[in-house]
Amino acid sequence: MKKNVITILLFLLAAVGIAAASGPKREFRGAWLQTVWQDGYRTRTTAQNKAYLREQLDKLKAAGVNAVLFQVRPQSDAFYDSKIEPWSRFLTDGGAAPKPWWDPLEFMVEECHARGMELHAWLNPYRVTGSAKQTLPRGHVYHKHPGRFVRYDGKLYFNPGLPENREFIIKVVDDIISRYDVDGIHFDDYFYPYPVKGKEFADSKAFARYGGGMKLGDWRRRNVDMLIEEVHECIHRRKPWVRFGVSPFGIWRNKKTDPRGSDTNGLQNYDALYADVLLWEEKGWVDYLLPQLYWDLGHKSASYLVLVDWWNRNAGTKRHLYIGQDAERTMKSAELWRKVELTRTADRVRGNCWWSGYSVTANKGGVADSLAARYQSVPALVPSYPWISGERPAAVSGLKAEHRRLSWKEAARRGRASDAVRYAVYRFDSREDVDTERDGALVAVVGKPEYEACRAGVYVVTALSRVNVESEPSSPVVIR
Amino acid sequence: MSKPVISVVVPVHNAGRTLDACVASVASQGDCVRELILVDDASTDGSAALMAGYAARYPRLRVISLKSAARGVSEARNTGICAAAGEYIAFLDDDDEYMPGAFAALLGLFDRFPGADIAVGQFRQGAYAGAEAVLDPRGAVEATLYQRPGFHESAWGKLYRRSLFDGDTLFAPGRRYEDLEQCPRIYARARAVAFTAARVYRYKPREGSFLATWSPARADALWAVDTIAGRFGGVCPGAARSRRFSAYFNLFNLAAANSNDEMVRRCWAELKKMRAAVLRDGRCRMRNRIAAALSYGGLTFTSLLSKMFR
After folding, report:
1. In whole angstroms, what is the distance from residue A198 CA to residue B65 CA?
2. What ipTM was assigned to the predicted interfaces of this complex?
3. Which domain holds residue A429?
């Protein structure tokens, strides 16, 4: 009997595992950490907040995440020390500085980089308040220039049609990238507000002044286009290695509105939010598009399957395309392996991003376990961005091993895209060739010039530039 | 009226001449087909337009394409598996057809053997002489690896419960002989596998098709049997060895006929290691055991024989 059970178990084990199930060597594996509507940051102390975020990052790293999208400007406010906008009401009351003082963005940049992860600062461009009752702290730009804002369904928005608002938003972006070592600037799906039945967005004055004979819809799209283009230009001038990415709502247009559209029946970016996201890739204004495909594979009006196919055919050729995944919903529908497999099969999709990061850290439906054990069990490098820079950093030098601890010389940074800012550690069996492209050879991506090896073997290290271009491998060292 | 339970997955690559008959053979199966999924593997011969035409006429048909360059049948099938919503999945190649009534026959097996997760039909008349049977996964894997008549390794001609598929049971990307390698892997997942003698599939071997000619990709047969040996060598060593011997001998013959000396030597070395055990294993098919016996005549003798009999 016992032998029989063992045979059956062995037999089942025989069926497990085909190569490359853990994923490709280069894959964007993002996670969104939103601050909007999160009470915890306001109620925890500074020390508790830091401990909380460290724990979130440790858990995300363990689940294979390599890029964190941290919301620093949820509603025309700041999760960082800003001279332009008040501290966020989701962090402190009345726009006061946090006590004891800390700068969440600075903290997150350091903590992510220490873990070999990227940190993308996530901004909402136009949103100001979340309800009709909400008041704004003294010093908010609204009090000085109320005419620049539009109240829509009770909530305040920057009027996207005013050049001075574009300038203001660009100033915010420029301030962040100038003072913080972020890897990316990220916008999500909110552009013109999601339509509310029977409500008009009251921008007729601005339209009359700046419309220039355009149709209203074209003019509004042009306003958003100009913002995107100017953000891109601002970044390009200031720190060209900082990526600019957008995670739009999952439907550009439906087929019945536009023959180029997808076979879906949902809200349309182009027509409702005035976000012509395909144009942004075509113009090269964004470095990645990350459509939020939160629906089930067979959803009636917005099928994941139809949409991943559509995006794969319509984006991802000039710039990168990643897919936004709803972690909790995907686990509920037991569709994780199918969705991951499909994004890896789709040849223009270069990664996923998990909504929300907190669902991953809470292991909702076992998502973190599944990612850590299976789909993201082997680390991956964030893809490179050759249109920004293809320049390789210098190879790592001075690699040595003391017992099991590897260390090497940290490269000097010169404020260039080719600066070595992260390192990839590879391990090989003593009989294997050193081939850094081999499946499973990459064992870690680290931010500091050291690594604690847990297995014997031959190790080499490569340097990664600010845009993830990889250097030649170092000379190998052996750990016994 | 039967319930629409089957998702049929067809990898399509430049199949403009055969696709009509292929699609029609599914369309005529009746209500049991929930959807026909054509996975366009970057066709360049106008199949895409053809497929769009079908989609307009046959509402249960959908076309997906995740590739801008052809990547082969494995990845296309995997895409189809991920897309499938039916309770069962059937595979169909773009130049083949299902026989009339094929799905009814295979679904009938599930009715009679509710514990089965896979129903296997035939693609040659009289290939399987036995009665309808249901085997536990081990029995099914062994019968298949020992190559008993009718226990074929093709992906098509079968119905699979969709719940058998996950990241571990997909086809290996970029490989040929992907069905040979995947077949025991998915059988091992099933509670039981049911077999019928009924012919359900029309396989149309073509001149110049992959199996009729030599190409370096033929060596993937060795990858497939080596992988099987790695997985199943511990639990059913005889069967894994028998299948491995077959593949190595087959490739030995092909390589000898094409004077590929390197491949001849590689196969010969492995055949020598296996032949004694194959000869002693009464469950090995006769062809393998004769080949094992003849191989004692030496490399030159065996390659001469294989050249003569081609």
Report:
1. 40
2. 0.83
3. 400-479
